[in-house]
Amino acid sequence: MTNEEFKKTLWEAADKLRGSVAAATYKYPVLGLVFLKYVSDMFDAQARVIRKSLAEPTSEYYIPDADSRAEIAPQFTQDKTFYDADNVFWVPPKAHFNALLAQAAAPDLAQRLDKALGEIEAENPSLKGVLYREFSRLELAPGKLGELMQLLAKLSFDPDRHGSRDVFGEVYEYFLGQFALKEGARAGEFYTPKSVVNLLVEILAPFKGTIYDPACGSGGMFVQSAKFKDAHAAKLKKKGDLAIYGQEMMAATRRLALMNLAVHGLHGDLGATYGDTFSNDQHKTLRADYVLANPPFNISDWGGDKLTDDPRWVYGIPPKGNANFAWLQHMLARLSSRGRAGIVLANGSMSSQQSGEGDIRRGMVQGDVVECMVALPGQLFSNTQIPACLWFLSRDKATGDNGRIDRRGQILFIDARKAASGRISRTQIEFTDEDMQRIAQTYHRWRGTQFASPPLPLAGEGWGECAPYADIPGFCYSATLADVEKHGFVLTPGRYVGAQVEEDDDEAFNEKMERLTAQLAEQMEYGAALDAAIREKLAALGYEVAR
User: What distance in Å separates the CA atoms of residue 202 and residue 210, rounded to the nearest whole number?
Assistant: First the structure.
């Protein structure tokens, strides 16, 4: 099997075992068991590392005699300090996935799982309150839980064979996406389509510094940012480093995020607990280099009436009935002096005038913190039909860390409404890698960054050369703030990029008009014949059809 076939087969089998349990309920135990398998395999892998160190002459724990080594090995592999030292979760023997799998047919398996995960939490303070411990409340048919464990036993992590956490990480992400498709509207609480996350990451290019998501859901922004950093570290011959900060309002979703970080080998500060970012901001002193977020669209009950004097509202008090401009200003307040933000919002945020939103948008434009606007196509999200866009904000548009081209007093507009060529299903599309690169490289060339394509050759810390930016009618346009003022500070890209230049199809206008007219006449004639046939059938049934 390929990786994709393996994930698909695993998902279909897991979904089949679901029976009558709703996907919204089922995702927590399934992802919880994936995590249990992960920590158990990591524990076993660390035990092998410990045994190997005893036989390695350069190791400080080297024991030359094989018999003595075999005798003392159990003492080392059962010593928790050897696991703590390498940040590996300690798994008590009775809580190990394989120990529980051996009891898969037990009628009280659910209770045993709850107890085992409680023991793992007790041994690992960082997992306190994170793991799913409600198997006994799950209304699965008898034996189904054991079958689910046997299915997930096919997952395997072996550092000597895989060399990374991709096996568990990819399965975890794939399952999150499949649950999102099953849940529909509810999925917006925890999942952003992968191609949208990837596009944000490709444009912001988080490589070194602090990254923050104030509505982090299941942590997809962090995972993709770390992947971007790792992928570019080798290309740039530089070591990337990202410190992760986030916050999530839903307790169960926060647990998904913490597990997601763990199965990808990431560590992050998601605050002391779950909580509302506006009223219970757990990172008030944070100044992030990158902010990536897909906050809930157009929420009305966000507590704005209690926050009218909040210092975050630099460009105006957000309306009490819509949090869009509260999110934008919160994220601006959390940016460092060189920080940049990428935010998914409803299209209305680009043009709305009610309740002072137009004034806030004008203030942000005049404050020169808006860097780039991207209009997205419809059908990207499985959970909402609300048209969406991307806002990119920047504290530093001058020449320096963020690019070699000074873009102060300018905003890049990209109309990507027709730029998604991938199809997930009949009702959902996605950006392909080529689509994302076209959009992201437009930004990087406009800004002149080291992530432009072709890659910039770096001389020490200096900037190299890349293909120059150019406006493309119907796709992208670099506007001045004066241009934006002429449009009443409306930031809809379609107003700026103009119409797409049609390719010359070598057909003369008169010939084309004649052909299309004949085609229309033919279709109208067919339509009239069809109409007459329908009327005849209805009349035969005794219905009188008005003309």
Answer: 16
